[in-house]
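ingest -> validate -> predict -> emit
validate: passed (alphabet ok, no gaps, 240 aa)
predict: started
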Amino acid sequence: MAPANPSWSTEMPYKAILENDTKAMAEFTEQDIVQLVAATHSDITVEAFQAIAIDWLKTAKHPRFNRLFTDCVFQPMLELLDYLRAKNFKIFIVSVGGTEFVRAFSEKVYGIPPENVIGSSVKTRFEQQNGQAVLMKLPEIESYNDKAVKPANINLHIGRKPILAFGNSDGDLAMLQYTADNQRPSLMLLLHHDDEEREWAYDRQSRIGRLDKAWDEAKQRGWTIVSMRDDFKQVYPRKK
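emit:
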């Protein structure tokens, strides 16, 4: 989209993306992210957006691990999902990622159907185009699904309080608290990314993926903390 928007070359936050300025990207505020999403996820139909996402995911590889991004799912997470399905759990993805983007791979990668994905979203508008009814994505945020917004969206889209939640950063703290304060037995799991060799290591002071307040509360309330370094025998699925 940059050639059609020449001002982006000097305008933040677009300039940082175009120049791959990772230091500047690490300083992005929530408003910066909202601005980027609104600009890049709008003026297109929902179906067209998903088609682009699916096409990109077929070949896009992680620069460090040289694996398709869809192959960077955690093997123990896949095993947990299989276990929960065998026990007749209903499973949902609750992500800060864009709903339509996550839906493009959720069923193939996780076995979770698109209707069970709750993520950030832009507003849409119903239109008739060439005799076809479509939803157009607008340059306006509907919901930025992070922190305290996650429990609100869980209630809005599911209508039931979870009895199990798995998070990995402070962005998931409210969801874990919401699950913990339950009249039914509940299980809260928190993944600690502490394996710099096989994946990443980030903690209290990390700009991205910060695990600070959630760590303290997990310790205080006896939630289950999973160490990637100590508890993950295998991080990613074996390459096919």
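The first strand starts at residue 44 and ends at 45.
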